Amino acid sequence: MSTQSFCYRLLLLIVHFALSSSRASTGNVSAIIVFGDSTVDTGNNNFIPTIAKANFPPYGCDFDGGVATGRFSNGRLVTDFVSEMFGLPSSVPAYLDTDYTIDQLTTGLSFASAGAGLDDFTAKFTTAISLSQQLDYFKEYIQRLKLAKGESVANEIIAEALYVFSIGTNDFTLNYLVLPLRRAQYTTLEFVTYLIGLADAAVRDAYHLGARKIEFTGLGPFGCLPAVRTLNLDEPGCCNKEYNQLAMSFNAELQDAVRKLNGDLVGAHVVYADTYNVLSAIITNPSDYGFEENVAQGCCGTGRIETSVFCGLGEPLTCPDPNKYLFFDSAHPSERACKIIADEIINTALLVFL
């Protein structure tokens, strides 16, 4: 065989495997279905009576068309990037947005609500859509899907979808560490265990409704959120080490729960996605990740305390380049940070589903 012929055949082989890999990547996950809080709310809170909204400038300044969709960021969220990486649409629709038809929701949707927690009491306090209500919406979605596509097609979509849970931080920052009720009932470690039980139950509920490919995102170092740094009276401007220890305790128990779920749920594959370490690495060495500005402050307003409506009030003070910042507001990552987190999750926890 001539060298030219060999190179031609090798090129064909490479193209064949590339195309096969692409087809497998897009075919292995039919849709992305999301439960959670403001980290993955793509606009559901626009349609409920709550002040936890992000449907006004400067939110969305780097989203397609510069539209404030209700995402708590300057652009897309982690789940938007994950959807695109699986060959699905580049943004995940909000379930309550009636501009989307059921046909458009067949490749993915988010039930998430800013202010929600694993504990339904967290959502009551913030007037968000509770996790149990999100699961009820999922039941409603299944019925809508069956009416539109037929039971067989709907069941296939549900079985082959990737289910993402991104929730839990609010249970600490807006509930346990602020309000007295749960602190009167539980020690901190008991509360962690209580939340893990709720996480376990939510995954089992989704499983009984047809979910088989499930990712549960661990908590990030929420003690390093700009708002938490601002309120850290013991060490102003510094990360709250006690809060970060709570996040690590939760993550350790969550990983144990994931292992148990995999043993209990026949045919399911549940994975744990680590965000704590990647965010900690960025905070420790921001220049390694291309962040030129202070990772202790957000882009919006002063960067120390503003989020949601307070970002709107401080719009004239918003930084000129949000993607130089780890955080867009005092609690939520910038679009660039979301892309880095999504890349990490795809290359670790979600690799099994590609």
Short description:
With 354 residues, this protein is of the alpha/beta class. 45% of the residues lie in helices and 6% in strands.
Structure description:
By secondary structure, the chain is α/β, with parallel strands linked by helices. The protein has a domain of 237 residues: Rossmann fold (3-Layer(aba) Sandwich). 45% of the residues lie in helices and 6% in strands. The chain has 13 helices and 5 strands. A 5-stranded parallel β-sheet has the order 2-1-3-4-5, with helices on both faces. α2 links the parallel β1 and β2. α2 packs across α13, α3 packs across α6 and α4 crosses α5. The longest helix has 25 residues. The radius of gyration is 21 Å and the shape is globular. The two termini are 36 Å apart.
Question: Which properties best describe this structure?
Answer:
354 residues, Rossmann fold, 5-stranded parallel β-sheet, globular, disordered N terminus
Looking at the chains present, what oligomeric state does this protein adopt? Answer: single chain
User: And the CATH topology of the domain at 27-222 and 247-287?
Assistant: Rossmann fold
Shape: globular
Largest sheet: 5 strands, parallel
Mean pLDDT figure: 91
Count of alpha/pi helices: 13
CATH architecture of the domain at 27-222 and 247-287: 3-Layer(aba) Sandwich
Outline the secondary-structure elements.
Blueprint: H1 3-27, E1 32-36, H2 78-85, E2 108-110, H3 120-126, H4 131-149, H5 151-160, E3 162-166, H6 169-176, H7 180-185, H8 188-208, E4 213-217, H9 226-230, H10 241-264, E5 269-273, H11 276-284, H12 309-313, H13 335-346
Parallel strand pairs: 1-2, 1-3, 3-4, 4-5
Helix pairs in contact: 2-13, 3-6, 4-5, 8-10
